[in-house]
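Q: I'm writing a short methods note and want an example of a predicted protein-small molecule complex. Could you take the sequence and the SMILES for zinc ion and return the bound structure as tokens? Please keep the output block clean; save any remarks for afterwards.
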Amino acid sequence: MRRKSKEVVLPAVRPLLAAAPEPGDRSTDVFSKAKRSEVMSHIRGRDTGIELQVRHWLHSQGFGYRLCVRTLPGTPDIVMTKYRTVIFVNGCFWHGHGCHLSSSPKTNPEFWRNKIEANRLRDERSELALTDLGWRVVTIWECDLESRPDLVFRRLKARLRAARLRMAKRHAIRRDAACTFQPGR
Ligand SMILES: [Zn+2]
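A: Understood, no commentary inside the block.
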């Protein structure tokens, strides 16, 4: 059977999102407060799901990590101090990935565009600030996790290995410097 359009509808979430009104706009306020927070928690639930998927994988591979370190820019989802690496697990809709999972809802498109653009800018700023502080930033996208998790995790493993090597080298250089530097001679 041929599909009419390329747009893929996010199951369960998209119809709710499409109807979500702009705050304060009474004419389109089709949701009660309770209903709206139910919609939002549904989306958050999806995002938590993909983050859990990554955490389970890390755990199964024996990688240690910390969660949501608020002292770091952008409060990364997963922080791996030993690797000087942070991981963001991004829901495609909220973070404006531009893929099939992130198409704008038909209702209140401007509201959603502004909101998601603000998220995207914040993500960019956070990544720059983290890089400046010497962190490696890995972003994992919902659509990739959904369609090719094996590849996502293979890449993540490679990046973590590289980060570990980098850290080990840095420590070795420091150790050498400490051994060869003999003040007063
Ligand atoms: Zn995506």
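A: Remarks, as requested: The pocket of zinc ion is lined by residues 92, 97, 99, 101-102, 141-143 (CB under 6 Å). Confidence is low (pLDDT under 50) at residues 1-16, 18-29.
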